[in-house]
Amino acid sequence: MSRRGWVLFLSMGVIWGVPYAMIRIAVTDFDPVVVAFGRTFLGALVLLPIALYTRVFYPVLRYWKWVLAYTLVEITGPWLLIGKAETSLSSSTVGLLIAAVPLIAVVMVTRLGHDRLDRRRILGLVIGIAGVAALVGLDIDVSDLGALLAIAVSVIGYAVGPIIIDRKLTGLPPIGVVTASLLLAAVIYLPFAIWRRPEHYPADATWSVVGLGLLCTALAFVVFFALIGEVGPARATVITYINPAVALVIGVSLLGEPFTAGMAIGFPLVILGSILGTARAKAAIKEPAPA
């Protein structure tokens, strides 16, 4: 990998590992739907001029039904549900649970007939599931089952999104698809965000939403597509294994979240399981889950 490739790779690992901490800070004072709206609106505000200038926005609109489907499963649902989950779960726990996305994705791709399970993949799935079980069993209280369900739905959505891109939106300009999706998500969130608008705007929460929109969304997608152009889509997905580590380090070191036995056992198992389970499925999973 070139020096530029390494810079882009490491940048993406950080940019998509940071959001979990920012979401945790933001939902302390803002309703999760307000956080999700702010992120999508700001992201769209930055990307729309780029998409219009490069003439990649309007061609996407012809496929608006599939763009809407992608938006619902990849952005609208997960970004709201993750915010809701982080009102009770730590950011590092959520980041590690989201790391199970490649495991779910490889099962879906296999069921669709795009690939097959061999012994190594089955071993990877078993190890990854054991890691998730360790996280859930040792770290999550029974009262947090609603948050766990929210993360489960988000993981499934993140796994389905790239499949829609691969089967229905392939060949379309990525910036155009992302911009249209962010605009649609912002429109969907808008009435609920108005209804749940905050009375006060604390600096920490406000700047976290700004960071989510500008850095972890707009800049993140620009850098990610540059990374794909530099190293290809298969190698670019390796950042999926870096993001949860960044989320864990930030949550423990900056937010004072505990480093638990579940994390110590579950994190390496989930990552190892994902590596084994998706080793030959990366070409079919064109993008990792954005946080």
Question: Mind sketching the topology for me?
Answer:
Blueprint lengths: L2 H13 L3 H8 L5 H22 L4 H4 L2 H22 L5 H8 L2 H11 L7 H21 L5 H24 L5 H22 L7 H29 L1 H4 L6 H11 L7 H17 L14
Notes on the structure:
The protein has helices spanning 3-15, 19-26, 32-53, 58-61, 64-85, 91-98, 101-111, 119-139, 145-168, 174-195, 203-231, 233-236, 243-253, 261-277. By secondary structure, the chain is mainly alpha-helical. Mean pLDDT is 86; it is low at 281-286.
Note the run of SSEs as H and E.
HHHHHHHHHHHHHH
Content-based structural category? mainly alpha
Low-pLDDT ranges: 281-286
How many individual β-strands? 0
Strand portion: under 5%
DSSP helix count?
Answer: 14
Radius of gyration: 18 Å
Percent helix range:
over 70%
Termini separation comes to: 25 Å
Silhouette: globular
**Major sheet summary line:** none
Mean pLDDT: 86
Which labels suit this protein?
0% strand, 291 residues, mainly alpha, single chain
